[in-house]
Structures are given as structure tokens and as C-alpha cells.
Amino acid sequence: MREKYHIPTIAREIDEQARAQHRPIAQLQQLRAMHRQRRSVGGGIFRTNTTSEKSAYHFGGRSELQFNIGRDKHGNFRYGVGLSTQPSRDFQDVTIIYPLMDRLKHALEGEAAATQYDDTYELQGDLSDKTPGKFVFFGKIIRDGTPPNITDILDTFDALIR
């Protein structure tokens, strides 16, 4: 029996089903290329170099709102979007995501957010705290230990990409 939260397997299943079902999230890399006016990197949402046993985020996502899956600090499975203020070798100037944090905070405070995102969505972290090393997440969390449902994850990603 496979571990219910084996992140690399779940990431691969998300990619495969998104493409097979022609989901909006399957077009993430093409949308990123169009928005950034660059050539599309192609491929799926997640890559092996952005996937670990703890989490996976979309390729190219460090300077953007990251579509991601993973375990939170309590071991619960989460899926949605996030922002990390953790500097890394390839991402040293985390200040470039501060405007994204402000935009996400503003978007979640509006009336439209209340109608678009029901009470199954949660915000973990403080969008006002721009201290390096923080992670802010908005999406859904499975707390009861049930295995993630790929269709539910895709539905959530599709809602968030719009």
C-alpha cells in the first residue's frame, strides 16, 4: 500500500489527469509564458526539481503565486497557492514577491472573494508579515487523514487560475 500523502506520486497524477481532462490548470505554463511574454517552457505543472517528499510547486513559481501541494506543519495535506519569503541560491531577492502578497491580501478581503471561495478555503500565514523565511498558503487542507482526491485538487486549481 502506498503512503496516502506521497507527494511525488500525487504531483504526477495531478499532471496526468489535468492534461487528459484538458483542465485549465494544464495550461499553466502556456499562460505564464503569455503573461511574461516569454517562450513557454512546456511540460506539466510540477517538475522533479520542484517536487520533494514534503511539497511540490509549479515550475518557475518562486517569484510568483505558487500552485502547490504538500504537508503543512501539522502533517495535514494542503493544496492551493502559496508564497514563500525564504531566500535561496536562485531566489535571493524575496522583496519582489511583496507586491504579490499585498495583491493577494487585497483580493481575499473583497466581497468577490467571499462568493468565489467558500468556507472550505483557508489562509495559513500572515500576508502582512514580510519577514524572510515565511510561507503563506491559501487553499484547502485535509485534516481527517483521508487520501487526497485528484479531482478535488484539479477543481481547486482551476478555480484559483481564473
State the major sheet.
5 strands, antiparallel
Counting H and I runs of at least 4 residues, what is the number of helices? 5
Quick one: overall form? globular
Helix share bin: 25-40%
How far apart the termini lie comes to: 36 Å
**Low-pLDDT residue spans:** none
What's the order of the H and E elements?
A: HHEEEHHEEH
Strand proportion: 15-25%
- SS class: alpha+beta
The tally of beta strands, per DSSP, is 5
Mean pLDDT: 86
Rg measurement, Å: 15 Å
Order of strands, main sheet, comes to 1-2-3-5-4
Question: What does this protein look like?
Answer:
The longest helix is centred in the N-terminal third of the chain and has 14 residues, at 7-20. Strands 1-2-3-5-4 form a 5-stranded antiparallel β-sheet, covered by helices on one side. The chain is globular, with a radius of gyration of 15 Å. The N and C termini lie far apart (36 Å). The chain has helices at residues 7-20, 28-36, 98-109, 111-116, 150-161, and strands at residues 55-57, 66-71, 77-84, 122-124, 135-142. It has 162 residues and is of the alpha+beta class.
